[in-house]
Amino acid sequence: MTIDEIFDSFNQLRVLIVGDVMLDAYVWGKVERISPEAPVPVVVAHRREYRLGGAGNVILNVHALGAEPIICSVIGPDTEGKNLLGELEKRGLRTDGILQSPDRITTIKERIIAGSQQVVRVDTETDKVITPEEQDQLIAKAKALLPDCHVVLFQDYDKGVLCPNVIKEITDFANIHGIPTVVDPKKRNFLAYQNVTLFKPNLKELKEGLKVEFDVKKEEELRAVVKKLRYELNAKGAFVTLSERGVYIDFLDRQYRIPAHEREIADVSGAGDTVISIAACAVALGLEPNIVAELSNLGGGLVCEHVGVVPIDKETLKAEAGKSLKT
Prior knowledge:
Elements: H1 3-10, E1 14-19, E2 21-34, E3 41-54, H2 55-64, E4 68-75, H3 79-89, E5 98-100, E6 108-114, E7 117-124, H4 132-145, E8 151-155, H5 164-176, E9 181-184, E10 198-199, H6 203-210, H7 219-233, E11 237-241, E12 247-251, E13 254-258, H8 271-284, H9 289-303, H10 314-324
Parallel strand pairs: 1-4, 1-8, 2-6, 4-5, 8-9, 9-10, 10-11
Antiparallel strand pairs: 2-3, 6-7, 11-12, 12-13
């Protein structure tokens, strides 16, 4: 495939995203006095904005690439849940994979900003594992949606939507239907993702998940640890992001180390979400392992040039890929 063909093909994809979707809230205001109750500033709020967070940022990245994201998650029937659904609906994105449970709250991370300074962040959340009944309902939704999708993307933030039963049921169903599975893991379920197509930890997650220490600068040590990871998970591939050292992929029995591109780094927030979104779409298209890694690495670097969590710009990524990738 040429670069043009790859980027055109993204538009034909449907990506089932299973994981912890959240709501980010930003409250902008002005400090006018110190509280008489405690030595803290009083922020007079002028504006409030809601954005998709957690797996929601993956939704935005997949959508920005031209693919159709379908989110499968569990949220509460609360005001925050209503606002989260509203953020999806105003973008024309599907909400039929979302389960609203009366026993659960919607995770919201609220940032109070005075002028240009973030004063405090308030997180209202639960990380308890969803109930067996909620698991059954979520699995049923995923199985109903999955046959029309081209790839499953597990986005795990350890907030309880993903658990071993949900992971196994959906992965097994996807494998039966020949649909690839791609994972952005966290600590709690790290070794629960058995028989997946591509598993993408960062370096810290890799070391913690396997309980190993090694020198990432030594290629043979990195290779050995990633090989061990693939063996532990019986995964077709592992894709490790190494921050300023680039990425390493061991997929379909081929190994590549891709260096990072030199950039003016403004903010690394959300880069991992961009990387996994591009990787999932690339795997869905059956691209070669080196192209999966290079394209994802490019995208992760590009979003780091912007302040805050922003989805990838497809045209910028395409232009960069045209200059640096050989397909």
